[in-house]
Write a structure and sequence with these properties.
20 strands; Sulfite Reductase Hemoprotein, domain 1; alpha+beta; five-stranded antiparallel sheet; Sulfite Reductase Hemoprotein, domain 2; disordered C terminus; binds iron/sulfur cluster; binds siroheme
Length: 598
């Protein structure tokens, strides 16, 4: 589908309505046309087909095995136990499981066309929404996962909700199509604050969207908030990253970073990952207005001719950061902006295990393998375990950006009970794991069999590779080192591989490009080390780097800093000085290695 036609489809959609209601009422076909799928994304769903079955079905000249993926939006990853149980029930309408996403959302895969309306309806009635979870709009806003009860965490969570409110697309189409035009019934929204998204959407008047206009944004748009030094929402990979600044016990303002983004195409040097750059610091009262100024600058200046170059990162590069800043501040008349604060991060990891949260209660961050909540026959029974916790403990639950789960607000008297439920279902958390996967972040994007863009396996492959890599780490005595491993099934970069210590990027079945030299802090891009590595070669390749690290590291030096020193990149400096150098290095390596190979 060419870029122009996507723009035209949005323009003519009457507030993203199109023919979706009619298409989903039609039971004669299991699928919808491509142009309808483009609109459907804005409603939080994608049409997919089962890639495991595709070749055989095509060969037999049969219809592909069509189904739909549905993505629930939860600012800062917050979900109540009641909402969790509704999503757990909905797994039975999907593939029997759900997938935590690395933007703190939840995906259900494999929902059949006839069941989509019921599933979206139930997500909404749980008090969450799928509206704007995908499409050319602002997506789910990420925030610090830990439920610490202090001023900073309260404010960052409030900000994720304010952002979600402000940038929801406005049209009654969503309510008309999925909720039969139903207006909010207070009976099913226990706390109206819990579900501002649906409330606002159902009450919004038809007509041109006040922020997005008729064309919406040129491309998807992502926002994340983090509290230094924990960069758990990976802010340098976001279109806008935000970091609060505390003065005299109150949040005075936020530093904004702009123009991060990871999608690229193998061999297309006009596309590449970028880290976000500092824009400015602004007082708290003006933060959401400043975000709107960035969003509308992208709306008006983003590339609407070529979708591959339409993300904010290219707009920032084209305008230059100074020109971009000038345009954004022009849209904030009378509002003062200040130089960005110097912010240092130490990790993108989750703080796994049990912790005090500051109000006498506890939280427990539980490792979830690849974010897949299912009942494994030969492994953890995540679905049953978390269901039992939701039913018996009834605590708030938080999805982290590393696709782990936090059980929040636990009474210390219930700690043993929670541990017993987890243990009963074979779910270990950091205190029991004792090997690298608890310490090291290892994430893979979804890829096969559902992702239509996958060139290789990812979620189904990484755990196997990590078993070998874990063994190596233990063998070398490096099992407690913070090292970030990420994998994707194609260069779109959903698993955020380009700022990992090791990033594996799918090229073809059982072949990955291997990037090395990002950072556990999330503030450095990795470089392409090998254009194509076979799956069976991955553990040995990784071992070479780990052995060199062990031999050459200085006392206390982490992998990311050793790599920078060994490659004469220097110690990791502030992002603003470093990102251009690394982006250039990446482009040079990509040019030498990818282009040469064709
Ligand atoms: Fe993603 C498209 C899954 C986070 C960059 N992404 C897709 C689609 C929808 C495939 C498609 O377009 O047909 C994938 C659905 C697979 C499936 O079967 O579920 C998909 N992306 C995911 C998730 C589920 C991966 C995960 O392991 O959790 C994440 C959902 C987050 C959410 O809740 O919203 C997900 N995707 C990301 C991230 C990471 C992030 O946002 O922090 C990125 C890189 C950051 C960025 O956006 O630059 C990312 N996804 C992409 C791209 C490349 C965008 C670009 O600028 O080029 C695509 C393809 C596209 O948009 O054309 C894509
Ligand atoms: Fe699919 Fe590629 Fe994203 Fe993985 S990185 S989920 S293969 S689009």
């Amino acid at each position: 589908m060419s870029k122009a036609s996507v723009e035209e489809i949005k323009l003519e959609s009457h507030g993203l309505r199109g023919q979706l209601a009619e298409l989903f009422a039609d039971t004669s076909s299991p699928s919808i046309p491509d142009d309808a799928n483009i609109l459907l994304k804005h409603h939080g769903s994608y049409q997919q087909d089962d890639r495991d079955q595709r070749a055989a079905l095509v060969k037999a000249k049969q219809e592909k095995a069509w189904s739909f993926m549905i993505r629930s939006k939860m600012p800062g990853g917050r979900i109540s136990s009641e909402q969790w149980l509704i999503h757990d029930d909905l797994c039975d309408k999907a593939m029997g499981n759900m997938r935590l996403t690395n933007r703190q959302g939840i995906q259900l895969h494999g929902v059949l066309k006839g069941g989509l309306k019921e599933v979206i309806h139930n997500v909404c009635h749980s008090g969450l929404s799928t509206m704007g979870a995908c499409g050319d709009v602002v997506r789910n806003t990420m925030g610090p996962a830990a439920p610490i009860k202090d001023t900073l965490h309260a404010d960052t969570q409030r900000l994720t909700e304010e952002i979600s409110q402000r940038f929801l697309w406005r049209s009654t189409a969503y309510a008309d199509i999925w909720l039969d035009g139903e207006k909010i019934d207070p009976e099913w929204i226990k706390d109206p604050e819990v579900n501002p998204a649906v409330r606002q959407a159902t009450q919004a008047p038809e007509g041109e969207d006040p922020i997005y206009g008729k064309l919406y944004l040129p491309r998807k748009f992502k926002i994340g908030v983090a509290i230094a030094p924990r960069n758990d929402s990976d802010i340098f990979s976001q279109d806008i990253g935000l970091v609060p600044n505390l003065v005299n016990g109150a949040v005075e303002g936020y530093t904004l970073f702009v123009g991060g983004g990871f999608g690229m195409n193998h061999g297309n040097l006009t596309t590449r990952p970028f880290l976000a750059q500092p824009l400015f610091y602004i007082h708290r009262a003006h933060v959401v207005d400043a975000i709107e100024a960035v969003v509308t600058t992208q709306r008006d200046h983003g590339n609407r001719e070529e979708r591959k170059n339409a993300r904010l990162k290219y707009t920032v590069q084209t305008m230059g950061i100074d020109g971009f800043r000038a345009e954004v501040t022009r849209r904030l008349p009378g509002i003062e902006t200040f130089p960005a604060k110097d912010i240092q991060f130490d990790t993108v990891e989750d703080n796994l295990g049990w912790h005090e949260q500051g109000d006498g209660k506890l939280y427990c961050a539980v490792y979830v393998s690849m974010g897949r909540i299912d009942n494994k026959t030969d492994g953890p029974q995540y679905r049953a375990g978390f269901r039992e916790i939701a039913e018996t403990i009834g605590c708030p639950i938080i999805v982290t950006a590393n696709t782990n789960l936090i059980l929040a607000d636990i009474d210390p008297a219930d700690k043993a009970k929670v541990d017993a439920i987890l243990a009963k279902h074979g779910i270990v958390h950091a205190h029991d794991v004792g090997f690298t996967r608890a310490r090291t972040v290892a994430h893979a994007c979804v890829a096969l069999p559902t992702c239509g863009l996958a060139l290789s396996e990812s979620e189904r492959a990484l755990p196997g590779f990590m078993d070998s890599i874990d063994a190596t780490l233990r063998d070398l005595g490096l099992e407690d080192e913070p090292i970030l491993f990420r994998m994707t099934g194609c260069p779109n970069g959903c698993g955020r591989p380009y700022n990992a210590d090791f990033g594996f990027v799918g090229r073809a079945p059982n072949k990955w490009a291997m990037f090395v030299g990002g950072s556990i802090r999330g503030n450095r891009l990795a470089g392409l080390e090998f254009k194509s590595v076979l799956g069976e070669e991955i553990p040995a390749k990784v071992r070479e780097y780990l052995e060199a690290f062990k031999a050459e590291r200085q006392p206390g030096e982490i992998f990311a800093d050793w790599f920078a020193r060994a490659r004469e990149l220097g110690p990791t400096p502030a992002v603003e000085q470093f990102h251009i150098e690394i982006a250039e290095r990446n482009a040079r390596l990509a040019g030498e290695k990818i282009e040469a190979a064709g």
